[in-house]
Structure formats: structure tokens, C-alpha cells
Amino acid sequence: MAAARLRCAAAIAVATATPAVAAPPLRRHPAFLPVPGAARLRLTSCRIPPPRGAAAAAMSSSARAEHEAGAWYAVPGLSLRDHRFAVPLDHSSPDSGATITVFAREVVAAGKEDASLPYLLYLQGGPGFESPRPTEAGGWLKKACEDHRVVLLDQRGTGLSTPLTPSSLSQITSPTKQVEYLKHFRADNIIKDAEFIRLRLVPDAKPWTVLGQSYGGFCAVTYLSFAPEGLKSVLLTGGLPPLGEPCTAQTVYRACFKQVQQQNEKYYKRYPQDIQVIHEIVRYLSETEGGGVALPSGGRLTPKMLQCLGLSGLGSGGGFERLHYLLERVWDPVLVPGAKRRISYYFLKEFEMWLGFDQNPLYALLHESIYCEASSEPYSSTNTTSVLFYLALASSNSS
Predict the structure, then answer these.
(1) Which segment of the chain is annotated as a signal peptide (predicted)?
(2) Cystine design at 130: which of 3, 107, 158, 174 (Cβ 3.0–4.6 Å)?
């Protein structure tokens, strides 16, 4: 998902792209470096007697506070169970007292609730998007559940894992404190959450298999770096972070810009009638007071905002067709001669449904930082896309 969204960030060819806020680069934390075998101590002769009475009750209560497991329930072909874990906000300072809730859903094939199965952790794409919500046995999940116990993790800040939304973040009134808080929601802490869960959920804390989709692949590589002892195997589907060489989001944007151009050209070749439609929309928005029109949710549709249609429309299967059919419904009909033409409520409402930034702001806040290796660069999307757009425009005008 992360790579696809970057590739199509300049969806509709108007002047500039929507700016994004870069977050600090990920840092490796020594807490998860494996201890060399020679340095491990054997304490076979120093057995500590199990706690009894009040001490045992206190430990049991603490374990319950750290992990709460729900009852099994069913969807067609699958059995599911919800788990909630109280994890440190900052794993490097676990004694600070600040905790968040991390949610994971355990999934098995119907009838295999008590079967002895190896565990598979699924890491969702993003950043900032929750794990899938199964409605039935199907796709990759059905296949995985044939011989695995699948754990669908809502990465911290998403879904039911202390979700960060515009309203919840507004509780932190200082922008500086918001940034400090957001630093704890990157891949390094996501992986520490995963290890926290593995040690409490998997019998005998055995290593598990990790399946990383898109940004989940970035997290899986971080897992390999920080805690390889927790991994039996790692499967990556389309997500690999920069490795070895220094990299910034601007490097990625430059590499992807040509593909963005090609997708625009392919779209307009298939639907040449939409060239005029886009010109009319951009002109209408630009000439409207305030440079845009109000969206049903209270946001504002501007020419820059219009480009976001390409995140899905130019970068997913069937996206060209869905985008074209959406553009068919841009304008309200003129019922009274001389009435001013307006963008339809249908289009504005559908436009909002294409976007996930309102519900999942972590993507807009953090997606540039995941491409930074040994460096960072703020507002790369604006800087890079503006320059490359005008270079491409100059080239097309001179040919």
C-alpha cells in the first residue's frame, strides 16, 4: 500500500501535490539486539521457588492486566477471538507508567479452536491502517488458516489499538508534545509490541511466522533487525524499505514520478473525454471564493486535493474505471435556465469516501519517514513533485 500510494501521489496532472509532514527517521533500539550465545548465563542451579499466596495473586492480577482474551465467536468458516494487551507507550522506558492498549484478533479455521497450530502474525500495510476485519473464510486468510493460527494485529495507533484520530490527537494541545507522542508509533515500537504479544500469547513463547504486506514488509524487516530470535520465517509481499544506502522520500518520489506520468497518460488515452472534465473542475475550484468548495464533512475540495483521487484511481485494479464513472457525476443538472452550475453533492460525498486520511491520519503524518534511511527531509512531496511537474511541462511544451 505504501509504495502504491507514493507511486500515484500526483494523480491528476495539475500544478502541485498535496504536502505531507515528514516524521523523524526510524532508529534501531539496542533493547532488541540479540545477546551473543557466549554472553548468556546459565542459572540451572539457582531455582527460584514459585510465588505463593498474595504474591501469586498479585502476579496473576498483573498478567491479567497485561493481557485480556475474549471468548471465541464465529464468521462463516472461521473462529475468532479478541485480545487486548496493555503495552508501554515507550518500550525504552517501560517503568514510566504510560501505557496504551494494543489489539490483536486471533483467527483459526472453524473447528480448530483447540488445535495445536503454529502462529502466523499478519502486519498490515500503511502506515496508519488497521488489520483486515474478516467477514468469512476467503482469500489468503482462508489458505493461511488451513495450517496456522493467524494473528491480525492492529498496529499501535490504528483500529482498536489506541487509535490516533484528529479528535483524539486534539487532546494533546501542544504541537511539540504531539510530535513527541507520535514518535512512539513507528515501526520500532510496532515490532516491540509484536514481541510483547508473542511472549504472552504463543505457547512456550515459540518463534512465529510473520507475513508483511507493503508497510507491513517494512515492519517485518525491522523485526529481522531488532528481534530475529522471535521469528521462525518472514514472508514479504511488496514492501521492502531502503537497505544499506542513504535514502530520503525525495529519492523515492523522483524514481516514481515517471510512472505517475505514465499512469496519467494511460488514463487519458483510455478516457480522452475526461481531459476536459478535469480542466473544468480545476477551473471551477480555482475561481471559487477561497479556492475550493466545502465537502460534506467540513473539509475543502481544492485543485490540490483533487489529485488525491489518483491514490486509488490510478494505482489499483479497476481504478481507471471507477475514476471515470465518478467523473461522470461531477455536475448537478441545471434545472432552471441561467442557474449557476455546481459540483454535485454526489461527487463531493463519493470523493470523501475515496480517501482515508481523515480516519487514518498516521499515513499522511508518517509515510515519508518510512523511506528515510540515515537521513530525513521535510515536505519532500511538495518539493520534488513541484519541480518535476514543471520540468515535465516544459519538456512537453518544447516538443
Answers:
(1) 1-22
(2) 158
